[in-house]
Amino acid sequence: MRLPRTEILLILACAAAAAMLAASQFTDIFHLTPPGGEALKAIDSADQHGYAMLVLAVFALVLMVVMIAARGEPIAQVAAVAIAVCGLVALLIFLIGDLPDVNKIGTLDDPRQSFIDAKARPEAGFWLELVGALVLTVCGAALATLRPDGSNVSDTHGGRSHESAPQESPKARLERTRHS
After folding, report:
1. 118: enclosing H helix or E strand
2. Stated pTM of the model
3. What would the pLDDT profile of 118-130 be if each residue is shown by its tens digit?
4. In degrees, to the nearest 5, what angle opens at C-alpha 163 toward C-alphas 12 and 4?
């Protein structure tokens, strides 16, 4: 049994989003930079919130495998909802833990000079977290709204869509309305 194209694309988008979350775990999310200088310190995801993003990414990937294996069963829809929840948790961690620190200025104790003012500038890991969390939330929710039998919502006319329905001629329509 083949997966519908929409479902395949959503699964691939969720997998890519989970990969972004995992990659953000090993990438700097902030560089602490003094005015007009080079970055003195890097802050990674583990410094901000431990290994939460990596755990969420791995859990989302496991849920995708469950969803694909249980296709057509109620557990598949539960797994899709759980994927969206993983994305939502990652988004909340981002919004509460990382976003308030963007461009924050504070003092940094550097052995070369004491107490330098430094600004937290977002780096690649920050953007990977944001995009990964958003895509995982939206695509997971979209997967959860797909019908378990794989048909789309517009397919409610006896197995035919509007495009494949035979066209009735105006004359036949007039005759049908006269007899009604």
Report:
1. strand 116-122
2. 0.75
3. 888 899 999 999 9
4. 20
